[in-house]
Design brief:
By secondary structure, the chain is α+β, with helices and mostly antiparallel strands. It has 16 helices and six strands. It has two domains: about 210 residues, Beta-Lactamase (2-Layer Sandwich), CATH 3.30.450; about 200 residues, no CATH class. It has a six-stranded antiparallel β-sheet, sandwiched between helices. Strand 2 and strand 3 form a beta hairpin. Helix 1 runs antiparallel to helix 6, helix 6 runs antiparallel to helix 16 and helix 8 runs antiparallel to helix 16. It starts with a helix and ends in a 7-residue tail after the last helix.
Length: about 450
Amino acid sequence: MLISHDLLEKTCKEMIETILLSLSHATKGTIYRIGPIPDVTAVRITSGIRLEDTDQIQWGLPEASDYNFPGKTWQQYQDNPGHVLEAMGWCVEKQKSWTADNPYEDIRSVRKQLEGEIEDFHHMEPVLVKKPYLYGDCAQPDYPLDWEGKPIWQDTEYLVVAVIKIHFLPYTIRRGDRSTKIIKKLSRILGTELLSLHIRETLSDAQKELARQRLQSCNVLAHELRNTLIKLGFIFSAINAEISFLREQWEKQLEKAFPELDNKNAILARLNDLLSLHLGDLNGKGNLGKIGEVLLSEQTEMANLALMPSLGEKWLNNKILPKWQRLLLESHSWKQETEEIQRLLARLGKAIWVGMDQNLALQMDHLPLDLRLKWSQLAYTDFSVDKLVKLEEIIKLLDHPALDIPHKQQTKKVLSSLKALVEMIPEVEERANRIIHSLKNGCSMEAS
């Protein structure tokens, strides 16, 4: 599980504190991290000891232990003929608790087997997480093997991710009593909390995780949220791409009605001609040649895109103007064309916004009034989730008999399908939230 050590230690301390404060006869608590598979290394994360006759807890790892970092691998603590039996091996392999309610007869006491000394009264409880939450419904993890080479956990619903060990006052516990039941219940809550932390840290860098395919072992919630994000990005981009086609067609109508108006594409074509005129002169002048080539590419790309005016203005101010200014400042190749270039750039800044001029729309008598007003407004919509009404208006606009654009019916079908997907998004998000709720509260989705 992907959890930072500091956050894991804090969570384990909170769980130990909860158990010690809930059970007055509990004296000490330790939590061990188990994983990853197939090594399932057991590492002691932290211990808390109740100070005598108080509710204060002293934290740390005061005594030496084989389970201190880097811990013990599965091969070191599993059941194996000829080796000592460990309660840790039982909890991990069997996914069952171990209660030492009579230390004198504890067959899994390492100290008793090796040194003949008894340990204190304690209870150990495995922390379980369902396999699908970590590896999906279809994945087949590389399970640890027992001493005979047979995979453990293959026929269970769960994986062991941690083990809780609680020490008690002498003769105050017995197997299956209220204390052990409370610890078992709290172990489930700890499993849910560790899973939630794992999900949060995984999703905090979702884009990098996707790129490196590090989300393969994420649980159902991670997949649900990731799919939601993918759908959101795809749907909105696709809708805005279709709207940009309407914008492109509207600007062609403007060009047809007002041929004397400055045309963005014509201006960019002239700028490219002027740039190409002396581009070869920049060879051997540092990186000016590279700047010129990039500028030529960006001006061509801008001409081919029906950008929103605000985005087009940013494109001009951040990409086009700075490069022209540097070329004109550091090279004299365009000395004779400088004034024309500056005029063209100024005209380009105005031409970007010409499509939103409502006065021009009112003068386009070759189109019905209702069509030209609606078209000029809707074509410059930057769609987002709160603009579903606008999308409905755009689909209705495509039914206008006087709207003569290529692929009109195909565009309508695409937008209608995308609209249905947009309307599904709240349902998907609600389902994801219910999964979060069920994981945090340890209940099934059916119960919630």
